[in-house]
Every structure is written in C-alpha cells, then in structure tokens.
Amino acid sequence: MVDLKVTLPKDFLQEEKREGFVVSPAMKAVWAVELDLLAEFQRVANKHKINYIASGGTMLGAVRHKGFIPWDDDVDIMMLRKDYNKLLSVTEEFEHPYFLQSNRNDKGYFRCFLRLRNSLTTGIQNMEKDCHFKYNQGIFIDIFPLDNIVDDIKLFIQQQIRAKTLLKKARFYSSLQSRYYKDKSPIKRMQRDLLRSFVFKEDKDEDYLFEYENEVQRYNDRETAKVSLLSFQFDYRIHDIKLKDVYEVEEMDFEFLRLPVPKDYDNLLTWKYGDWKTPMKFPNYHGDIFFDVNKPYTHYI
C-alpha cells in the first residue's frame, strides 16, 4: 500500500465483521487511504478556519457506526459556498500525492464539486472505465458546496429550469468529445466525429458547465432558511438542510478521526433515509469503483 501520513491503529487493516457484513482487508486498505485524505483535508481546513460537516453516508456512518458504513467505500464532506471558495483559494496547500481536483484545474473532470485525490492510487468509477479520461483518478473523498435555496417556490422552479437546461447543454457538448469517449460501434464513432467536425465545432461544454455553476449560486446573496447540494443534484430535495444545521454541530468519532455532524442529525437522517437506525444496504450514488492502493491510476489509463 502507498505511504500514508496518518498513523493507522494496530490491526486496522485486518478483516472485520460489522453488522453481519464482512469488511475485507482490501476494503480496509481503501478506507485507510480515504482516512488519510480526510486527515489531510482537516489539516488544511483547520489551518484556514474552513467550516465543514459530514454529508450523506459519512454522516450516517459517524452517527450509527462511529466510522464507515460497513459496505460504504467513500467519504463525503459538505460546506457552505463561502468556505468552499476559501478551500479553492488554498489549493496549493495540498502537495503531491494529494491533489484537490476541480473542473477548473483538471481538464475533462466534469463535475461541480471537489475531490481530494491520492495521485499514487487508483479509484476509477465504473461509469468512466471505457473513457479516455486523462484527469486524476486516484482514490478520493468528495467535497460538496452548499448553496442557498430561495424561499419563493416560483423563483426556485424558474432557477431549476434554467439550471437543468444549462446542464443538459453541457452534457450534450461533452458527449461529442470523441477524444474522451470510446464508442464500440464504428457508426457511432463516425457520427460523433462528423458532428464535431461540421456542426458543433466549438467545445462549449465547460462554458455551459460554468454557467450552470453560476446559476445554482444565484440566491447566495439572500438570506434563506435552507441550503442544499444544488450543484450535485438540483432537484433532489432530500439534500436540503436548514442553514442553522451547518453551524450547530457536535464532534463524533469516525474510525480513529473526529468529524463535525449537525446536532439535529436525527431529523436530517430521518428526512433522507427514513428508518436510519436499521442498517440496510443500498448502492452508492457513484456506482462501483475499481480500486488499487498499490498502483497509480496512470498505470491503467
């Protein structure tokens, strides 16, 4: 396994049974890399007074398991957009092999949230394995921005329509980039190349993506009751949280580290998962990932 800054507890990498689910040594090694990334993120966040809280399955894991959900394979963090921008301004704090990845500093990374990667490892998502993506695909943790939800439902729907239209355009132009995608069908390859050569000559995917990012931030200068992961999933309201929950937090164990979690975690987790106290296995948003803690992603791409 790659060298880590963090000191692992004795026997951490050994097989373990949690909630009747066997966590293999291979998954424990992936967890170790992700915890090392989390510790490095916390170092920079604490240094620059950047506020953040655990998100999604990481929040649930901290509350219910004091660490990873046994079948989970990632770490999710969220923060207000102002803290997110502050983190972006200190990207240089992360030295190799750590890399704070955004759609601005890594060509082809087509997401509106950050990933902190270990460049000496591999974490290639199943949905990307057939692509020519050259961007960093080391093992990662996700860092999401929280944007204001306008209280006026009519304004929200208008914003939603604009945002979804921009994202659809961005994805359309991205799909034309034959230098990234491998079509198994020669006819599809030809169609893509013809469209790029004669109809859609300009690469406007990033332009539309950046417009989309600006749109989700439209109401950040207003006082609102709630915030959400709009840049991740605009119309999926289970990501909505009260603004106060970002500030009213308590520290909880997460494996051998500590993470801030909203004090009102019970209501938040119930809103998102229903009966969150009963462990149930569900698939991740990102799908399956091919991991290698010994070789860098460049070995595979």
Give the strand tally: 13
Strand content: 15-25%
Q: What's the Cα radius of gyration?
A: 20 Å
Mind describing the biggest β-sheet?
7 strands, mixed
Run of helices and strands:
EEHEHEHEEEEHHHEEHEEHE
Cα shape:
globular
Structural class: alpha+beta
Tally of individual helices: 8
Low-pLDDT segments: none
Share of helix, binned: 25-40%
As an assembly, this protein is: single chain
First and last CA, distance:
20 Å
Write down the overall mean pLDDT.
90
Task: Pick out its properties.
alpha+beta; two-stranded antiparallel ribbon; globular
Task: Give an overview of the whole structure.
There is one protein chain. By secondary structure, this protein is an alpha+beta fold. 34% of the residues lie in helices and 19% in strands. The strands form 4 sheets. Strands 3, 4, 5, 6, 8, 9 and 10 form a 7-stranded mixed sheet that branches. Helix 4 packs antiparallel against helix 6. The radius of gyration is 20 Å and the shape is globular. It starts with 15 loop residues before the first strand and ends in a 9-residue tail after the last strand. The model has no long low-confidence stretch (mean pLDDT 90).
How would you briefly describe this protein structure?
The protein is an alpha+beta fold.
Strand and helix map with partners:
Blueprint: E1 16-18, E2 21-23, H1 25-47, E3 53-54, H2 56-65, E4 76-80, H3 81-88, E5 98-101, E6 114-118, E7 122-125, E8 139-149, H4 153-175, H5 186-199, H6 205-216, E9 226-228, E10 241-242, H7 244-247, E11 249-254, E12 257-262, H8 265-273, E13 289-292
Parallel strand pairs: 4-8
Antiparallel strand pairs: 1-2, 3-4, 5-6, 6-8, 7-13, 8-9, 9-10, 11-12
Helix pairs in contact: 4-6
